[in-house]
Amino acid sequence: MRSQKTQKRTSDALALVEALTGKSQEMADLVEQEQANLDIARKICELRTKAKLSQEELARKVGTTQSVISRLEDADYDGHSLQMLRRIAAALEKRVEIRFLPGPKLQPA
Predict the structure, then answer these.
(1) Which residues make Cβ contacts (< 8 Å) with residue 49, sequence separation at least 6?
(2) What is the DSSP letter of 53?
């Protein structure tokens, strides 16, 4: 028998994440951190590809190894440093811009 309460299915990633994590601020912070890691990895790969460079070629320009570039392009990597991002930006004739955007108000402890 079907339940009288039918849930509407969704493929909205944000709705799915909220359903899984609830309203937990800790989980929201973790999701935001992972999104930032993904954004950084994706941007490095996008800029490198647009410059028509292999990971090895970019590594040479930055003064590092191909494996470091590969790691930086991995969405699961969370060790991005501002210094390394600046080196990559310089090698790609770009600059790093950091912005502070409005976020949720902090709840009193």
Answers:
(1) none
(2) -
Q: For position 80, which CATH number holds?
A: 1.10.260.40
Range of the domain at 56: 23-91
Between CA 102 and CA 99 the distance in angstroms is: 10
CA 81, distance to chain mean position in Å, is: 13
Residue 10 lies in a domain: no
Local confidence pLDDT in tens for the 109 residues of the chain: 455 555 667 677 777 777 777 777 787 788 788 888 899 999 999 999 999 999 999 999 999 999 999 999 998 898 889 999 999 999 999 999 988 888 766 555 5
Q: Rounded to two decimals, what is the model's pTM?
A: 0.71
Distances in Å between the alpha carbon of 101 and those of 8, 24, 67, 79, 105?
33, 21, 32, 22, 12
Tell me the C-alpha distance between 54 and 76, whole Å: 20
Q: DSSP letter for 78, please.
A: -
Can you tell me which residue has the tokens 């954004």?
Answer: 39
Q: Is 9 contained in some domain?
A: no
